[in-house]
Amino acid sequence: MSMHQMALILHLLGASIWVGGHLYLFIRLMPGFIRHNDVAGFLKFEKSYEPLGMSALAVQVVTGLYMMHDIVPVGMWGEPMGFLSALIHGKLTWLALTIITALHARFRIVAKLEQGIYTDSTLKVMGIHVALICLWSVAFVVTGAMFRG
Questions:
Q1: Could you tell me the CA-to-CA distances from 79 to 3, 59, 94, 95, 122 in Å, in that order?
Q2: Residue 74 has pLDDT above 90, yes or no
Q3: Which residues contact 130 (CB under 8 A, 6 or more apart)?
Q4: TM spans, by residue (predicted)?
């Protein structure tokens, strides 16, 4: 097994955890958390999932950068290469949007929920953040699939 294949397997496992966890949160859990204003339930999920989810994201970042470098050296990431450039820029865009959305959610919304400083709409705003993370995550998967398609 090559290093690239091993990186791809780790990348896919990380994506399974990251994307699956957020889709589960968005589709199955957030509607109830929002409907019942269940801040405690949301925070319980967040506390349980965050270490695993962030570790999975870190694995994806490291393996993704390794695989992109394996395909195209870093110095050429900005060079016009047609479809390959678009895929690389797409992946980097989804990563930037994910980081911005996750940091805003963690330090602005979750922090307020943990401190007990929230309104009836705070979980709805968190739901929007979860929806955005799901959107960026699915975009990651689709873009990644195009590397081999």
A1: 25, 26, 19, 19, 43
A2: no
A3: 22, 25, 26, 30, 105
A4: 6-27, 81-105, 126-147
